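Dissemination and training. As part of the outreach component of the grant, students in the summer workshop were shown how a complex can be specified as a set of sequence lines and then modelled as a single object. The example used during the hands-on session is reproduced here so that future cohorts can follow it. Participants entered these lines:
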Amino acid sequence: MKERIRVAAGQGFWGDLPDAPVNQVEGGPIDYLMLDYLAEVTMSIMQKQKARDPSAGYAKDFVPLVRRILPTCVERNIRITANAGGVNVAGCADAVREVARDLGFSGKMRIGIVTGDDIMSRLDEFLTHGIELRNMDTGAPLATVRDRIQSANVYLGAWPMVEALNQNAQIVITGRATDTGLTLAPLIHEFGWSATDWNKLAAGTIAGHIIECGAQASGGNCQYDWQNIPDLANVGFPIAEAAPDGTFVITKHEGAGGRVNIQSVKEQLVYEMGDPHQYITPDCVADFTTIQLEDAGENRVRVFGVKGQPATDSFKVSISYSAGFKAVGTLVYAWPEAYAKAQAADKILRARLDSLGLRFDQVLTEFVGANATHGPLAGPPSADAPEIQLRVGVRSSDKFSVERFTKEIAPLILTGPPAVTGFAGGRPKVEEIVAYWPALIPKELITPKVEVLQV
Amino acid sequence: MKVQLVELAHARSGDKGDTANIGLIALRKETYPILVREVTTERVKSHFEGICKGDVERFELPNLGALNFLLHESLGGGGTLSLMTDAQGKTFSTALLRMEIEITQDEAQILALS
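and obtained this result:
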């Protein structure tokens, strides 16, 4: 058994710095590269793309990335875990296999595929058997939106990926898998952790949580001492150096920018946190109140003491459904009385929308430069403000109303308050809303499937 | 004396659906008990009046010198439903750091704020 395993984060979300994974592979020693592509809303975006083109529906950027890094990964024996498969794991794997063949790896490497997360075709079976898939936030049963569902995927954990790694997959591609599982799976595989060693599984899960948002753990978006964080232009993404006993060090490659310290790690630990005693994943329940942090040298933070509890008997399900239409229009008003002009324009716009008799579920006005982030906490803006952006958003189940709204923004320039600009982009786009429906499902109803393909 | 949280803590925030979470982290170990005493769920709820329409929950993480707040019904429906610029609650962190709390002269001296 190796004494330590380095798992490097390469993407914090789909669309993160394109060169970050390349820098992780080339910038110093690592054993695994983990790539998290799937935020909650990402599945719905991929579902839209797949509806337009059946060969789409996965993180397309992953394929050219594999082309760039695979030769080095093979040479240095770096293995990859990625939830790049989105809603089309097979399509993603085919594209990656083609690239691997192109690079001359035919017969020389294996690609692991994890599926079984997609339960779209089984929803009616579940619903008729009394599995209501109630919304975890609102309590509403899924039946209320059944005819509008676009995708339904279970968050699978680390174990199917472990199976693929055990079968010597160089690259493991999953669909909806937890981001923490992408880090935990290599550690289970390398260290032979048992399925009931809850403390170690929790430690590996927390290592995954710390690095899953990329540079957010290594100096990016860091409130603490942000002015003095060095060289964010060349920010190094985080690396978890884990030991068989479940302790680990968070670090980054030497010479890369950014900063890993106790404060940067703490900020990431609390990110998107719910009840810290119960961070629930398919693999375990981690207790964040047991985490101990220690300075272990420059850009090194040691994490130890983590305790975990047995996994629950449910998987979380991520369901997406059509929820109407929205559009956002903006205009910029200049000094003097920029804020008063923007407010007046908003009144005029709303009066016109009212008289048109349009139907909206919500109309939201924000004044960027005054209240768009901190609302009333910001207090009134200076009367001398150089400019204020008027930003009006509407949402409706009635597409016509939203379309009509988009035609009412530009006319404000010639028919409203003066010193206004910022309409270069044309009419606002009408967007179909694909909303997120979190639910739980008993684990025994789900069978993850692992395939390992020869290239 | 009154002091603004930005002097005592750093923070990061994010979302889960229509709920914003704010992790509030003491800059120094000595400050954590003050945060526990002063930054109550009631104070946070009234600080975010007009923004947070649901309940506020608070969890303590003494091991990190941090408090975690959940502000329910705060993100205009959350996710893709929200029309807000900050639909993901990313700037709730510094919105909380605007809060003013009361500390004693002794505490101010310990923290070298007076």
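Chain A touches chain B through 49 residues (CB under 8 Å). Students were then asked to discuss how this feature might be tested experimentally.
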